[in-house]
Amino acid sequence: MELGDNLGTMGTMKCSFCGEVFRLSEDDSEGNLPRVLVCAHIFCTSCLLSFHRHGVIRCPECEVESTLPEGGVFALPEDNRIIGLIYTSKMNKMKRSSGSFNCKKPKLTPAKDVSAGTEVTKQVDVEEIKIESVDEALARAAENIAVLDTIHETLTVGLKQQVRRERSRLEAEIKQTASEALQAVQKWKDVQLSQLSQLEARFSSSQEEVDRVHKRRVALEIAMQMAREVHRVPFLEQYCTLDKVVETLEAPVDEQSYDMESTSRGCGLSFVFLSENLNQSLVLSLKMEVAAPKQLFKSPPHSRQQSSSGKKPPRPSPKVTHPNSAWPQPESPRAPGSCSPRPAPRPRSASEPEVPEELLADGQEKAAPPTGPQLANDWRIHRRKKHLLLGNKRNVAQWVVLSHVVNPSHFYVSYVAEKREREILEKKIDLFCCADGSFFSSSDVVETGATVFAREGRGLWSRARVLEVFQSGCVEAVDVCPAGRLDRLRLFFLDSGLGKSLDIHRAEETAASSLKAVNDHLRKVEEGVKVELRCFAPQAIRCSLKDLVPYDPTKGWSREAQLEFLSVVGSAAVKMRPMGQDRDSLLVDLRKAPVDQSSDVPISIREYLVFIEVARFYSPVNLGRWPLLFHPPKYPEVNTELDAVVSHINSPADFYVQLVDNMEFVLLSTKLQDYYNATTVSAEEDLTIYCPVMEQACVARYEDGTWYRARVVGHPGGRKVEVHYVDFGNKKTLPVSDLRKIKDEFFALPSTAIHCCLSGVSPLDAETWSDACRNRFIRLALQKLLTVVATGNVPKAEPLPVKLLVSGPPGDIAELLVREELASFKEGIESAAAGEEFAIWDPPLDQAWVPEGGDAADRSSSGEKEEFRLRLPDQLKDVKVRVSHVNSPGSFYVQFTQNNAQLRRLCQLVEEECALMEPEEVLWKAGMFCGALVDGVWERGRVCSDAASANFIQVMRCDHGNKVKLPVGNLRPLPSSLTGSLALECALTDIRPAGGCSTWTATACELISFYLTGASAVLTIKEVTGEPVPVTLFCSNKTGVLVNVADFLAGEGLALKERKPRGAAVQTSTQTDARPLGIETQTDGSDGEKRKEQTPSAPPVSAAASVPPRVSAPKPAPRTIMSAEKVKTELYRPPELPGLGPIQMSVSAIGEDGVIYGRTETAERLLEQLRQRIQQRLDSLPEQKPYTWKSVQGCAVIGPDMLWYRGQLLEVLGGHVKVQYVDSGLVENIPVVHVHPMLLCADVPQLCLPCQLHGVAPVGGRWQRDAVALLRELLLNRCVNLQVTELPSDPRGPLTVELYLDGLSLSRILCHHQHASECAASPQEGRADASPVLLVDDWDIDSKDLRDPEEPMLGPFVYPDLPRGGGRFGVRVKHLRTPNELFLWLSDGAAEVEVGGETLEGALTRVNADVGALQPLTSFRQGGPCLAEYRDGKFYRAKMLKFSSVSPVCVLVQHVDFGSEDTLPTSRLRRMPADLLRFPLQALKVKVAGFKSPRASGREDLLPYSPGWSVEAALKMIDMLHESITATIVALEPELTMLLYDEDQQLVHLPLVSCGLADLD
User: Fold this and answer.
1) Distance from the Cα of residue 1176 to its chain's centroid
2) Is 982 exposed, middle or buried (0-12, 13-18, 19+ CB in 10 A)?
3) Which residues lie closer than 8 Å to 1393 by C-beta, 6 or more apart?
4) pTM for the full model?
5) How far, in Å, CA of 322 to CA of 27, rounded?
6) Residue 1354 exposure: Cα atoms within 13 Å on the Cβ side
7) With 90 as the cut, is the pLDDT of residue 725 above it?
8) Residue-wise pLDDT tens digits, 1102-1161
9) How far is 802 from 656, CA to CA, in rounded Å?
10) Pick from 1143, 1168, 1174: which is nearest to 1158 by CA?
11) Which residues lie below 8 Å from residue 670, measured CB to CB, with a gap of 6+?
């Protein structure tokens, strides 16, 4: 037992890192106790003291970082198990040493003076004692035998069970490993078969012969054609050489000249089974690992547990990976927070190396050289064994040897520890190169990026990558070259770093000699060889001495520096200490062992090269001369509008713009990328910048890898520079390695980024710009196409003051920032919208109107209540206003600028009054004032109509003019002191609607609303008689010039000027001028009576003053007024109506009112004849004349394709008319010049039939836009079946029809989408829904041998039994749609339910094994069961929800066992076998009770299908549902509702409520 103890504890008593024995603390020595890290690895105290850095220890085994406690390393927990073993061993040793002294046998020495009788008695006693001791020993031995029998029986039974258990486990692992190997072989087979599609490229000789025959045949056919034409027309002989034609025709075909045997040759490829390498390959791939026996009944440490299930995953093959789960689960394509389980990757054991995917991919062979440290070092880190694991960390020094040197900033090393690996690699490569399959043949090609075997300097074969290929007879490099025509190529050796140019010298210019020359230098790498060599990483690691630059940076590295570097390092091993990484190079320092044995200080190679003055450490330098600079940008001319894009913004006073008409910059950028991305290694060395100089022009690489022109503006340190991109304006800190010297040709174009500042504005505090202003300016201008106007000339060193103008509102960005109180105008500068200062009429902008008798301060001090009602200013001319809302040119609302302070004060008072008020039950009537919560702000409102709904009511915003629909809970009663309005309703004077209509067109309303809403304007009130008030309105355009809005509408053809008598002067009577002008506002007094307030009278103003000073209206040029020709046309003949019954029709248009226009098959034929007649009749355009369109009904229209069509005039809209094409039903707005008042083919009736659906009524009484859009998507340009149910009384009215799409009623489709509702059929009709079968024509079809439909009507899915009793039960979430709408499954129901001895998984496996036997789906009823194909190619149970699209036909299905949804074409749906319906559903849709979506989240990241919830709430809910969840059932109807609890028995939704992502319900 002691020997066993020693053997068992020998490895435990030692540190696994240093090998030292653990020691206990004693009085005379300091102990070395074992301590445990967070990752559960154990090391001695001495090792841990050497590991820790800044309070953190990185485990050398697993690289997990452990933070030290306050006491440091000595505060880490000790391993009591090992300490107990040490104590036990020590105690045993002490017992053995003490026992060796006390084991002497006692001797009996009788006294000499005892008598003989006494001696006899004593001898008898001694014999009795011996007999008793023997009896006791025998009894104890019997007990020991019984104990040993029990132990033997226990061990025997345990051994049998152990063998049986391990045999079962090993058999399962052997089977799974063999299965994985078979899958790998199958995958290799599929890859090879897929590559056979490129097999034709290997038969180049046969293809050449085919091309020769084809060319000869084409030439012969051309000659035959020429000969026939000459024979037919002899005159053509002079245009061709007849002799050559005849010679071509008579030339015989020499069959011997064509290589007919080329098709009998093979491609040279073959696939063989190398049986001699089978055992070796199987040993590498299928490996039986032998490790120390593990305890089977004690759980491993917490950090090494594989999974929550406790099951050990099977050991995978190192080269074959596949999902461990055989039950892939679809995921939701719609919900971003979907918890749908998907096929999880196979768990990886802690000791299994993780091989990067890119090392296993074939694409590795085409990576661009040189080989970087990331590829090789990472590969090694994962591949090295345990005793070398620590040596491959980048922060630990390693012994290396130089393999190739370009210069001290570009050299390659290889690890000394991998010498044995390199030897094995060289032997393998030499063996591969001796095989016959490695020789190039005439059908082989050499391409750029391929891996080959080539002879290196020592004459050994090595791996190399092809960088450039040169073909015989070609000057430039090619991508692919046949092996027989190879002339020269440039290689990069992966295992040494050497770049070499290889010339192919041929003894003779024959194919055999060329191939022999190629095979003397190269060998090809077959696919099997590539696979076997993947386990060998590139041996050469590119390195660079950190912070070392040439002694003379302008000349680069000298030859002397390279030779000195080689001489000092030589072939000896040096210690490399990694210090960082710069792209594909490791930044290192090399240290060589000292030559002098008396010194143990290593020699630093960097310091040595600096000492001998062939290199120096990097430091920024400033040369005495100025570097070459870029040309400054060309500034635009003053007051010239140019289109530009704002490329970079620092603040409104510091930003950069690019002019968009500069095409030279686009060409320059393209040339930059082409040149610097195609730079070779040697040229890159010439362009490298080692020590950049301040203000030096260069080319810098941006973070996206693109090259741009830049200049150096700073040296932050750490071999980094700060550059300024001269073509964009932004700055960036980059490593020096990202800079390149700029070629002279890229200096020609000046800098394109113009440094600008906003003109006329300054910060609010006159010093610094606020973050709010900067962010607002960035949102308005950054990367936007704007109009730039320079306002002055400045020196090139200063920013150019400009105006930034946006098309449409807000117009001038500077004015918008001032209006939003983010900036202020500079002293002496005002908004351009205000025009020039009008000294006569303008009242102060910062004062409200003050009535006679005192100012506002006097009123406030005298105790008068502050009133917030509209009061007109004293002067009604040129009043500055802001347009708040626009309905039409005859109704819009403005706010006086002088009332801004009063409006802000009013909002504060309304919020103070209403915010804390609880909702009350108020019967709201029309005209009542209220406090309304609009977009989170309390405002004054007025109820527009009596409350027709208990939830919503329409309210007009008193101080803005627009109407909104608000919930009743957002309204509060308003005190009488706060009632009134500060918005004035106005109407433009001197204009009227165009087109002879009395109302304004939608185009005019939309245009004026687009330009005026929110704009600043100058207003002149013509007359105050009541609302709307007639006014003249002036707004500024982009250049700041005031424009009359009425004249603008008239110029656009949307309005007409009011007619006035000739010579009539505008007069104003004295009585009118003396009459008090004012607006009467009725308010409710305290006594309930209404009182009237009238504004004070304005002083008399002459009519001439109504026009703003210095702004004169433009005078139109003289023109000749032509009298309009009166013309009258009739409508075209009405269409010929069909009879009642089924017909077929092609839908041509859908009207905005939901009317369907279509043509029958007969009408389609007539339409073709009609088009020919019209085009033959009108071969030229008629003369354009002015017409009066009031009496025009039918007309002729020139369509967009410049063809004539018949039309019907609907409405005149200024310069356009609304026309309906009578033969298609389409309605368009067409310019007047394209419409002529005449009838085309008046004898032909209208060809299209208007139709309306029977038995449905649109929601809201009219068809909505989304309903019309759905109709157009379903019906346009489609031939449909319909049943005419009723003819109109008016022959031009619509037919009443029942329309079917693929057997589905269109009316029911619209009702399903909630666009319409079914109307109750009248008793007179008594009509049932027409069956689609009745729409078929009455054909005489013999249905005797026809079979009934094969697809049975399947029933619904079976729901599982839910737990009863109201207790909690475990659940597992399968899919999350919203935070309170989940799909889950019972944890105890996770076990498969067997039905008829088969589980659902087994049934689906059986069905997917024979997919070809599944019938396609033909019945698409809502909620019907089906089998849906998932993206893994397997079919799962699903149910159909709806049609998501018609062209192509796609169906939205839900995977019933997972809850996720998918949109699939009908080709991916199959009919479900009836036996699959026996299994209950595996996912239940549940509503989680207790919380709901937040009332007003104000967030932008919302779920598109459920806008009430944010994406953050969904993601947080997903995180909380990964724990162990229990549930209780709250309700079963109308939907299944549950409460969910976490591991702490707390409701899972409480964290969402506390974060404000949800509200309690």
Assistant:
1) 56
2) buried
3) 1360, 1399, 1400, 1479, 1480
4) 0.30
5) 59
6) 28
7) yes
8) 333 333 343 343 444 444 445 567 788 889 989 988 888 888 889 999 998 889 999 998
9) 11
10) 1143
11) none
